[in-house]
Amino acid sequence: MTRRELAHWARQPVRIVVGLVFPVMLLLMFNYLVGGGQGVDGDNTEFLVPGMLALTMAFGLESTMLAVTQDLNKGVIDRFRAMPMVSGSVLVGRSVADMLQSAAALAVMTGVGYAVGWRWHHGPAAALGALGLLLLLRFAMLWIGIQLALVAGKPEMVQAVQILVWPVGFLSNVFATPESMPGWLGAAVEWNPMSATATAVRGLFGNPGGPGGTWVSDHAELLAVAWPLALIAVFFPLAVRRFARIGRTGPRRVPALSGGRMSPPACRGSTGAAGGAGRAGSA
Asked: How far apart are CA 195 and CA 58, in angstroms?
């Protein structure tokens, strides 16, 4: 299943390239055109890049939803379920392929960030820990995307989800610190799971963040692990149960005919019906 998903990369290179280039465009736009980093004591680029890495992981939810809904509407998942294979392999293949694409997106974004002046200032272990937190957030978003796709069932519904994903993504500390916002808005931003990951990643990379001083900012690394694990604990079983229910509630399939003949039970039923009709005629 993973090989099938990876084979789509070769057949649909434009979609993969767009998925990699789009967050790069956002990074360059906000770094050079829009600006940001309100309330930041330090270099704006070093504040922005870790936040954009977290935002890229969250926006991966849209690509997951689109891929799953397309497979549902094309009947691909129904065909796989009819094959002698473990039903969960469909979801495993989807998740592995998405995580590989997310790792590629992280590599591209990290390279572009380095090119525009971003640096990490702590050791390799801290940098790997930051990348691990980013991929953990993406893994949580992946299962949210699978669940929403199985519920929606149509690629058109991805647009409706985009309307929700963008405000949630921007309602975070990716572009500005919570301290620079109104009190009620800053509190909501601090408790955003994406904000926890962005704050923790900035700390591990040694990049500047906000003034801090709150419980949420002081325990960002703990929340960067707890939030994704909580989301996975909720949406993983929901997605698995929903996927299993598709097979039970899907349309019944007519057994394949062999050589143009009906199956033996059907033949017997047809013969019996014809015989009954003949006897009724004789009577």
From this structure: 11
User: Does residue 211 sit in helix, strand or coil?
Assistant: coil
How many angstroms separate the CA atoms of 20 and 1, rounded? 22
Q: Tokens representing 102?
A: 């997310």
DSSP lists the bridge partners of residue 258 as: 261
DSSP states of 55-93 as a string? HHHHHHHHHHHHHHHHHHHTTHHHHHHHSSS-TTHHHHH
Neighbours of 185 (CB within 10 A): 12
Which tokens is 27 given? 């990074």
The predicted-structure confidence for 21-40, as pLDDT tens digits, reads as follows: 878 888 887 776 665 555 57
Q: How much helix, strand and coil, in percent to the nearest 5, is found in the chain?
A: 75, 0, 20
Report, in angstroms and rounded to the nearest whole number, the Rg of the chain calculated over CA atoms.
25
- Closest by CA to 227, choosing from 125, 95, 138, 98, is 138
Structural element, H or E, at residue 272: helix 264-282
Place of tokens 């820990």: 129
Structure tokens at 214: 């709150």
Contacts of 164 (CB under 8 A, 6+ apart): none
Under 8 Å CB-to-CB from 155, ≥6 apart: which residues? Answer: 66, 69, 70, 73
pTM over 0.90: no
Over residues 63-77, the pLDDT tens digits come to: 888 888 887 877 776
